[in-house]
Amino acid sequence: MSDTSGKHFIIGVPTFNRAHLIPRILSSVQEQNYTNWTLLFVDDFSIDDTTSVISAFSDSNPKIQYRKMNQNSGVNAVRNRIIDEAKAIDSKAFLLFIDDDDYLAPESLALADEQITEHGEFSWFSLNCHRQDGSKLSRVAEYGALSYLNDYMFGKKIKGDLTHILKLESLGDERFTSEFKNGEEWYFWVNLSLTHDMYAIDGLGSIKEYLKGGLTAEGINKDKAIQVLKFKIDTLEPIVGKKKMLHQYVSLAKHYLAKKDFLAAKVALSEVFKSSPFYFRQYKHWAVLYLSK
Question: What count of other Cβ atoms lies within 10 Å of the Cβ of residue 243?
């Protein structure tokens, strides 16, 4: 297959201080049975050998592109840079996101090309993710047209990680949040889901290794629980209504109680009570609030 046949895929990889994993990603892309790809690394100001490792390949191969942030900015800023750089490379391409501890399954690009051609009315596609031992990370109840908002955030048809592929032409101002340096990826996908359904493909996209010390293994933003909950409420409540956010309000009250901020806890619980007096999860926290007086 020539480099001008089929869809052009830009594989966007945010990376930071993981030079030792770069060869694995490179091999997984170069060994695809599909050749119309560009591999785009955006480096979050690594201080290891990332620059020299990638440059050893990119200097002689224009299909491997390397950009470096001017300072360490967090993965959300890096992903936004990937979107902008990918559009500059080829605005008509499809962007496939993987993390630097991921790598592609051997036939993922060929499968994506086939399915995108067959279902060209969609601009957002997903493939499954597996662990290194072959076990599934993605749990999709039914494949085909799905809503990230209704079937993942507020539904049960999708659980676990997916490999996402986006038609760059379909992306407007949607970007990953700048309120948090890392995590809260749902913000981007929810905003995208307001105008785009996702077509879920029953096939393997990427293989994930959750490394010790990584963001997922360490737990992202655990120290910012109140900030995250308020962010979710502020973002999602205007979209889905208060009743779907009652659990978030109760969780917020729980965290306020732990900090002994009883006034803030009462405000959060009052929002729950006004919306649904029979939402029983609130009452144990009302009891804690009452006993704290």
Answer: 11
